[in-house]
Specification:
2% strand; 60% helix; mainly alpha
Length: 205
Amino acid sequence: MTGEASEIVLSKQDLREVTGFAAACAEMALEIFEADQPDDSRPRDAVGAAWEFARGGERGKSLRATASAALKAAKSADTAAARDAAWAAMSAAGAGYLHPLAKATQVKHILGAGAYAARAAELVAGDDRGVAAEQLERAVHHATPVVVDVLKRFPAAPGGGGRVGELIRLLDAGLRSLTESAILWRPSAVDARLPVFVQVGGLTG
């Protein structure tokens, strides 16, 4: 039917790699949430569930339940930075449910955790955009070749979405620009046999 998005082939290992990437990104912002809500473990639980799936667990109830709980934690946060940190955790738990549809909006499932984590760090630093750029560089460093390959199967990130949407687009562009010469061979969080990409140049926003 005209207007329908075509399907993209995604293996379970693809989903595990994407989820591991999202978990690594979200993990960087957990301390921001916990500084605001030290007795609330819901975002950390969501990141833990994401890691469990990324490292071989099943994609089941735990991911959905912890993602929902992290979303509720975001709503109870006292600061915007803590809210975005919890959103990063929610996005990590939800990354395993990336839909195999060639739609730009699906890119948010891959890069949302990294963008929310960068925004949380930016806010803590007094809205310093240089801090967000540094966080995006760190996110790029976490991306395995599988993550980059999966990302490139989808259209570029969509417009809109405020500052987080802008950060998604910056991260999207940075990852898509990587070449084989930008690979650094070192263990990744998901599979020690896979190379991890590092960014050549800088991401600014």
